[in-house]
Amino acid sequence: MNSTQAGTAPIVLMEGVRKAFRGQDVLRGVDLEVAAGETYTILGGSGSGKSVCLKHMIGLLEADAGTIRVDGRDVTHLSESAWVPVRHDFGMVFQGAALFDSLSILENVAYPLREHRRWPEDRVRARVAECLEAVGLAGIEAMLPAELSGGMRKRVGVARAIALEPRIILYDEPTTGLDPANSRRIGVLIRSLQQRLGVTSLVVTHDLELCFAVSDRIGLLRDGRIAVEGDGQAIRESTDPAMQSFLGGDEPLPAATAG
Questions:
Q1: How many CA atoms lie within 13 A of 149 on its CB side?
Q2: Three-state DSSP class for 249?
Q3: What would the mean pLDDT of 169-196 be, rounded to a whole number?
Q4: What distances in angstroms separate CA 253 from CA 46, 93, 153, one per listed residue?
Q5: How far apart are CA 203 and CA 67, in angstroms?
Q6: d(Cα 45, Cα 173) in Å, to the nearest integer?
Q7: Are the C-beta atoms of 216 and 190 separated by less than 8 Å?
Q8: Containing domain of residue 37, as a range?
Q9: What is the pTM of this model?
Q10: Which CATH number fits the domain that encloses residue 238?
Q11: Nearest of 193, 203, 163 to residue 39 by alpha carbon
Q12: Given this model, what pLDDT does residue 7 score?
């Protein structure tokens, strides 16, 4: 599925997006569109600029050139204050989960609710319980992050990301540091949230198993552009040398180091 086939405007669109750091080009004209309700994975090696793409989508970085649209709105050069309501559409799952070590799981998941909702305490607690149950971690509100396994911390990060009922969830290397069993659990969770909540998911990863397990469409980021794009079958069968090299584990070290 893509926005052109569906006949609707993409919920996330990047056109000709460029970004350089200290004079070194990282994104060299990224063209990308994601339809509402699909899971799109940006595949690429370490340092290829995958996370840089996500940060542009949510306004943590500003493009040097090109256009970015979210749900039809041009967000390329929004002010920080103008980004605030746009970001309400997004949930972000960070590479390291980014939990507050000194706060309980309840307080971690409740954090965005307390920041953006004026809810009574009983409603906050009920929403936290719903989110933890959704990621298979019901009843752990009183625990601290240090008491959890790496896989559990990642799932708490997902619970926090869905607390505000976002339309779009961004996953930044969600299986980094996890063993294969926990990596598969994260993949199942990404798919189940898409199916149950109807969210749009954007995943950046170099994890091929996760990529093929969760994706409706996949784009290979290489040399600062989306070099190959398609569904899982098209990607597996691609004769593009860059794609064959990546799938075969022969991807050369990229020049960029921006993640």
A1: 10
A2: coil
A3: 89
A4: 8, 26, 30
A5: 20
A6: 11
A7: no
A8: 1-89+204-259
A9: 0.86
A10: 3.40.50.300
A11: 203
A12: 54
